[in-house]
Amino acid sequence: YPVLFKDVDEYIDPIILDILSKNIQGGLTHQYVKLGDKYIDIDKIFRMYLTCRLSNPILSTLHFSYSKVINYTVTLKGLEEQLLSSLVKIERRELEEMRETLIQEIFENQQQQVLGLFLKNNTKILHLLVFYFEFRNILDNTELIETLENTKIKLNEVIQPLNLGERTRQDIEKLRDTYTYRLAAIRGAVLYFSLVQMSIINSMVR
Questions:
Q1: Which site among 22, 39, 173, 178 is 20 to 30 Å from 105 CA-CA?
Q2: CA distance readout (Å), 87 to 52, 82, 83, 84, 179
Q3: Mean pLDDT in the chain?
Q4: What is the pTM of this model?
């Protein structure tokens, strides 16, 4: 079962090093780990999480090697984009939903159609190239030339709707920036980081 330790500072008690290093002993049916001078049973689904309020905690190389460190500190630009998305979703919900749908469709089309087209024709083209490089003049291979031409035509057919979707997405981005949404998102992000930095000046501000 997961265990969460909140507000951990830069000091980590060595007593849990065996847990961090996953120094688990025992067999398949019974596993245990050393905790201090005792051995305690441990479940295979056990997880331990340590959270810290420090933006850049200084940990030893040992701790970094034994654990997976994730920095959830948000950047000014990242927070601005999150606030912008939330704000537009409130004020112009249909606009934000259209943008999200377009992004998803563009990604799926790129993955499925473009890659699928290349994978479908790649084997045939390579086979024809190898065969005619070894035995004949490649320019006499009408089948290869036709395959390349068909691939080019189909690729253009796939790319055109992708380009149209990308242009539509850019138009939506301009609409999001046209109104005061972007300005409000910038101010919100700046306000957040100002409050965070004030805690450095006075610890009462949290």
A1: 178
A2: 29, 9, 6, 5, 11
A3: 75
A4: 0.46
